[in-house]
UniProtKB/TrEMBL annotation:
<feature type="region of interest" description="Disordered">
    <location>
        <begin position="1"/>
        <end position="34"/>
    </location>
</feature>
<feature type="domain" description="GPI inositol-deacylase PGAP1-like alpha/beta">
    <location>
        <begin position="222"/>
        <end position="278"/>
    </location>
</feature>
<feature type="compositionally biased region" description="Basic and acidic residues">
    <location>
        <begin position="8"/>
        <end position="19"/>
    </location>
</feature>
<protein>
    <recommendedName>
        <fullName>GPI inositol-deacylase PGAP1-like alpha/beta domain-containing protein</fullName>
    </recommendedName>
</protein>
<dbReference type="GO" id="GO:0016788">
    <property type="term" value="F:hydrolase activity, acting on ester bonds"/>
</dbReference>
<dbReference type="InterPro" id="IPR029058">
    <property type="entry name" value="AB_hydrolase_fold"/>
</dbReference>
<dbReference type="Pfam" id="PF07819">
    <property type="entry name" value="PGAP1"/>
</dbReference>
<dbReference type="InterPro" id="IPR012908">
    <property type="entry name" value="PGAP1-ab_dom-like"/>
</dbReference>
Length: 548
């Protein structure tokens, strides 16, 4: 409809409690004879489902309903105080308590977390759409931005401010590597034919990603699509936006389960072929203040990770970095036989199921899998043997991990758009190394002492050798190395954005505050570079919609 310049325009900018658009016209004086034109948003809807990363979904106990996992938000004074309270609580939780509380079979999604929709929709509606199930400070901002920007693309057939300026930049300015064009007028018009409603898809990140994908499939079918008019449902599809492990869930959903109600996917900060950082955490614990919650040493991390299929699936895949060795043993690993693994492209046998001192869970750490068997919570872990049953169950999980990795290798939804951090200043484990001067073959050495924090003493024919886990030196986002984040670029995805000082483009190096730095993994979606790539991808995906 064409508006006359003298028309009185009324926006339907408010929402009722169900999220439906409403207009609030006012009576005008009788002498005001202008036409009153109400600009209504589109009736057709494209639901957007945000899938968070590992540890980004709130969890509660199945039996009691008590919260067992709620990642601390750090976006305000109240949030910091809450985080401090959580730190205090986790300080006294040993391995056995952590394992019991974070048992994949005894938890479920907790939708009661705090919400900040930034005035885009009311809190009640946001909660109905699952926003309270995910980490507020990491994910609510991008969810609110999608709700705002995507529902304000055109007004009276003209591109609105953001889309007319920032939205018209070249994708290459933000690090796109496949030569994709900027958004066209037709693409904006097509996208503007739909209303966008943003949902959160929290999931049990402790269980396998295949099971989480099945849960998300049911959530989309029974909760999201079921909430829309039946005449729209037959053709309606959702767009998935993922962070980190959420990308694994999406790939399992479309490529393993074959779910056909997905219009397209935007992946952010996805460890597409795994992350060597996982090996570090299992052998050394986490670092800094986050270690109090995530695990201060091997004992606290293994208790949870070794029993969580979802976490184990983040190990580097058989095709990580093209099959290149990523675990180095000793200072001269590259020139010594058996010191650069995997040597034959099989990390499952060579590292994850290997009981030698350099394995993911070596023989002397076996009882950490079942911490209730430990006699005491000692500072130093000696060679303590253990029953065979712990490794039997663990090895079965690794077999499942290998099967999963092979099922979804190089497979992505069509279309898929990806963005990732590639910055040398965000030091990331692209490979891992036990530093020290080894003598003899690694398998001939025996563990003398392992403090569970990255300091190890082994002994052989030449006596004791002290080893220390090396700091990260690779490029990435601090968690996902660029080798893994960029892997989808070789697998036929529609677009791949490399962002940080390793990217090429006018806006790849600086964040929204103008600082020349990369973005951190957990808060990737709070960065303007990732946000731009996300909005671009969604509009491109919307070209495929045909139910308006």
């Amino acid at each position: 409809m064409t508006q006359n310049g003298n028309d009185h325009i009324i926006d339907a900018s408010d929402r009722d409690e169900q999220g439906r658009p409403i207009a609030r016209p006012r009576l005008t004086p009788s002498q005001d004879t202008r036409d009153k034109v109400c600009l209504m948003p589109p009736a057709a809807v494209i639901p957007i489902v945000f899938l968070p990363g590992i540890m980004g979904t709130n969890l509660k106990a199945l039996d009691s309903g008590n919260s067992v996992w709620r990642p601390p938000n750090m976006d305000g004074v109240g949030s910091i105080l809450d985080a401090l309270a959580q730190l205090f609580a986790f300080w006294f939780k040993g391995p056995a308590t952590r394992k019991r509380q974070l048992d994949p079979t005894n938890v479920e999604v907790d939708p009661s977390g705090s919400i900040d929709a930034e005035d885009t929709i009311n809190e009640e509606l946001a909660r109905q759409r699952g926003w309270g199930s995910v980490m507020r400070s990491a994910y609510n901002p991008i969810m609110a931005q999608m709700e705002l920007r995507l529902n304000n693309i055109l007004k009276a057939c003209e591109a609105m401010e953001w889309w007319d300026a920032e939205g018209q930049r070249e994708p290459s300015d933000y690090g796109e590597q496949h030569g994709n064009p900027k958004l066209s007028e037709d693409e904006l018009k097509q996208a503007a034919r739909y209303r966008y409603e943003v949902w959160a898809g929290g999931y049990n990140w402790l269980q396998s990603n295949i099971q989480s994908a099945a849960d998300i499939k049911a959530y989309i079918e029974d909760k999201i699509l079921a909430s829309y008019p039946e005449d729209q449902r037959a053709k309606m599809k959702v767009i998935l936006v993922t962070h980190s492990m959420g990308g694994f869930v999406a790939r399992a959903l479309t490529e393993i389960h074959g779910f056909d109600k997905v219009l397209g996917v935007v992946h952010g900060a996805m460890p597409a072929t795994g992350a060597p950082a996982f090996y570090h955490h299992v052998r050394c614990g986490y670092e800094g203040i986050e270690s109090v919650i995530l695990g201060r040493d091997a004992a606290e991390v293994v208790a949870v990770a070794a029993n969580a299929p979802g976490a184990l699936e983040l190990t580097p895949t058989f095709d990580y970095a093209g099959g290149r060795a990523w675990l180095k043993l000793g200072d001269a690993a590259e020139s010594m036989p058996g010191c650069a693994l995997p040597a034959s492209g099989d990390p499952y046998q060579e590292i994850y199921k290997n009981r030698a001192w350099y394995g993911l869970i070596p023989k002397h750490n076996e009882d950490l899998i079942e911490p209730g068997k430990l006699a005491s919570n000692t500072q130093k872990i000696k060679s303590i043997g253990g029953s065979r049953s712990s490794f039997t169950a663990f090895d079965a999980k690794i077999d499942d991990v290998q099967a999963f990795h092979r099922q979804f290798s190089m497979k992505y939804a069509k279309p898929a758009f990806c963005h990732y951090g590639a910055d040398t200043r965000s030091k990331t484990w692209s490979e891992t190394r036990w530093q020290g001067r080894l003598s003899g073959l690694p398998d001939e050495l025996q563990v003398e002492n392992d403090d569970g924090n990255g300091r190890l003493t082994v002994t052989g024919g030449a006596g004791s050798i002290r080893l220390e886990f090396a700091d990260p030196i690779g490029a990435g986002d601090g968690t996902v190395p660029s080798e893994s984040g960029g892997a989808p670029g070789d697998a036929g995805v529609e677009a791949i954005f490399r962002q940080g000082d390793q990217g090429i483009g006018a806006y790849v190096r600086k964040n929204g505050n103008g600082k020349d730095k990369g973005y951190e993994h957990q808060s990737a979606y709070n960065d303007v570079r990732a946000q731009w790539a996300t909005l671009y991808g969604i509009v491109r995906i919307a070209k495929e919609a045909d139910w308006a």
